[in-house]
Structure formats: C-alpha cells, structure tokens
Amino acid sequence: MTSMDTLVSLCKRRGFVFQSSEIYGGTGSCWDYGPLGVELKNKIKHVWWRDFIQQRADMVGLDASILMHPMVWKASGHVDHFTDPMVDCRECRHRFRADQLEETAWVHYCPATKGNKFTIPAGEPCSHCGARRTLCPDCGKGELTPPRQFNLMFKTFIGPVEEDAAVTYLRPETAQGIFVNFENVQQSMRRKLPFGIGQIGKAFRNEITPGNFIFRTREFEQMEVEYFVNPHDIVEGRPADEYWHDRWIEDCLAWFRRYGLGAENLRLHEHDRGELAHYSKRTADLQYRFPIGWSELMGIANRTDFDLKEHAKFSGKALTYFDEERKEHVVPYVIEPSAGVDRALLAFLVEAYREEEVRGEKRVVLRFHPELAPVSVAVLPLLKKRDDIVRTAHAIRDDLSRHVTAVYDDTAAIGRLYRRQDEVGTPYCVTVDVQTVGDTDKGEAADGKVTIRDRDSMEQMRVPASRVVTVVGELLGGKRWADVSAQIGRSS
Ligand code: GAP
Question: With a 6 A CB cut-off, is 296 part of the ligand 1 pocket?
C-alpha cells in the first residue's frame, strides 16, 4: 500500500490538494482543493447525489444553512455532549485527546539504558525497563494535566455585537438541518414513510488532534441521509428501522465497491455499547484500510426518534407523521448513513494509486473509476508546430467539453503527455497526428482519424474524429474497450 507522504506529495505536485494559506506558513489541518481536486470532489458528490437522491423514488434533497438557531444545538445535545476529553503537556504544551493516548507512539528516556531516548509503539511498554507511558508522548518529559472536556463546536456571533445572546455555532454535522426541516419537506413534497432527505455540505469541528492529511480536518464536507421510517411497520418480518438499517449498510457498501474500493479494503465495524452515541440504537461504521490503518470512512446509525423528539420538546412543534392506516400520529425513526466527502476522496485516491513498470520505466497511474476521474479525456496534438493539428485538437476538445471534462495539453512530447495524464488518472487520451490532417507537402491525404488511448491497458484504437464524442461517451459510460474497438473496426 502507498504511504500518505507519497499521496500528499502527488496531490500537491499535480494540483489536487494544497495546504491552506501556504504562503503564510499554512493553517493547521485546513486544506484547499486545487483544479484537479475540486473536479474529483465534485464528481464524487455528483455520483452520490445522482445515485442516492435523484435515482431513488423514496429520496429528496435539501441544502440547509450552516448557521442555525442556537437552540438547535441545545436540543441536539451538541452544546452539552459534543465534547472530547483533552489533556495538555505541562512542558511542551502539546495537546492530546485523553481517549487516544494509548493509540499514540510515545517518546521514552529509559533509566535502564542511561536515559537513552526511544520511540515506543502505541500501547506497548518499554522493552528495556518495562515501563508504560505516564508522561507526554511527544516530549517524553512533561506531566500531563488531568483531562478536561472540550466542546468541538466553533462558536460565532450572529450580528455585529459579540454578546451571549448572539452566540451560535458553525454546524458540526449537516444532519440537524434535515431534522429541523422534516415537517417542511414531508408536507411540501407530500411524502409518505419511508422516505429520506439527503444533503451535502460543509461541517466544522474544532478537533483537538486533526491530522493525517484530509482524513481529520476542522472543516470538511459530509454527504448525509436521514431516512425516516415508521417504527410500527414490519418489513420482511422485522421492525422497519432494523430492516432499513441493514438495507442502507448494504447499499453504502455496494456504492463504494461500485466506484472502485476493493472488497479486501472495506469492512464493517459494529459499535459496542461503550462506543454508541447517546442517540443510537445501533451504529455500524464502514471502515477503509487507509495508509494509517483501518479507519472510519462513514457511519450508518439508527438514531431512533431521538432527534425529532428533542426538537419537538425544545421548539414546541409536534414533529410527527400521521399514519393514515392506523389513524395515529407517530414520531418516525431515523436511519442515518453519513459519509465524509474528504475521506471518500482520500479512499478513492489510495485505492487508485499504482506504481507500475512499463518497458523498464516506472509509471505512476491513478486508476480512478472513469466517472470519478477529474479529467475524463485529454486531447493531445502530436506536433504542436503544425497549426492544422493544433486547431483540430482544440476543436475536438471544445466538442468533448460540452459533454465531459476535457483538457488540451501540448507542453511536452507525446510520451511525457501520456504519463502526465496517467498520473492524474485520465481514463482516455485522444491524439491528433499528421495522418489525421494529412501532409500536403508529401502528398499524403488526411484520414480524419484520431488515436484513442486507454489509461489502464495502454491499448490504442483509431477512430474517425467525427465519432470521438460518441465513442468517448460510450467508454466512459462503461462499454468495454474490446466491444467499442470491434464496432469501430466493422464500421470503418
Ligand atoms: N451526523 C452523524 C455524524 O456526523 P460522524 O461519525 O461524526 O457522524 C460522519 O461523522 C462522517 O463524517 C465520518 O464517518 C467521516 O467520514 C466524516 N468526518 C467526521 N469528522 C471528520 C473530520 N474531522 N474530518 C473529516 N471528515 C470527518
């Protein structure tokens, strides 16, 4: 598996992700998505929205505001419970999450070896003196303060006056925007249970120990669904909430598999009683084998009727659903699949990254699913000094760009251009050469064909320029290379 450092370096070099405010020395744990990163991110969000919202008859979308009424966060429990235990080193002032100290490698000055310094793996004792960590894991010298609870929400003020009455928070999850709009959406869209509301948007958490590139940041994006079910319904012999929880786990797993994550790199982690959030009846995390080890990619929780009941209590509005058949008002149960966009992007990057040897040379290639690749097709002129080749290549790119993400590049020789596109995961390259436009000096007629090259197999086929948009569309839509090539062969 590739290392995080390799990915961070590729991401910077090829315009995927830059450190935020880099010219000022960077902002801790904030990252900016560059030209290719934003395309990749938008494509992930686009396919998620299409597959989970637009294509499902039981789903609708929402875009709620980030700043909400402060009572939302009181009702949701975030003001009182959204905390992590924090400790500080009295010497080096580094901060840690108290509950993660045992997962951190630690520095130790060993008395059994005249005070030699060792870095000891997380959770292990010193192999020389047998001591376990008690001091700061970073400097190995400072005492740690007793744990204090630290609220992870970013506080801000609505309006010009910084007074208590104006305090609100940047949302730490998109979910609450959905709960408080439950009635608006259900009634305006005349929805019957079960139905779901999906939302993609920014969330903010003042994490004590952010890090591991875009895995844990203070500003990130979520793709969340709140799926409302009638707790009195029985589906396939089971309570509706339990049935739909399993269905969403299967659907989410299948979705990540469909866009390229390997089965061997995905697993489910069931929360035990101690791990369960206060609102949850059951939570299963989908974990991915990141370079930092198995870690949470997304969570799928059964939040029961907790949120709607709390908002009803705090707002005084009855957030219920009228069950026509039973002639009763019920508070729906909620199944919540919640994925981080940035973590999904990191997982797709990790999975796509390959170093291969081609004719004795190293080739770095990102084997993205064609629908996720930041650039769908690159149009490359074989000779940039020939105006007719360059003009034709630009015209083909312009045509393609009406349908897919297409770029033009003539800044190197063709072999180099192919390698560059491989390195950013472009599934197809279209090359315009002398045969395409002909050579009047040599009396060679134009054949009007271009070469399409496949990123993964590096196979090539000649295609009439007039059919490039259709052929590229078919390939990106999942038609097999061999079938398209055979079809071109038959028709030309
Ligand atoms: N509404 C439920 C909720 O927010 P969560 O497990 O705290 O649940 C859901 O977050 C997902 O959001 C996580 O699985 C992860 O993908 C992403 N996420 C959470 N905190 C994050 C952070 N600090 N940086 C990046 N992504 C984060």
Answer: yes
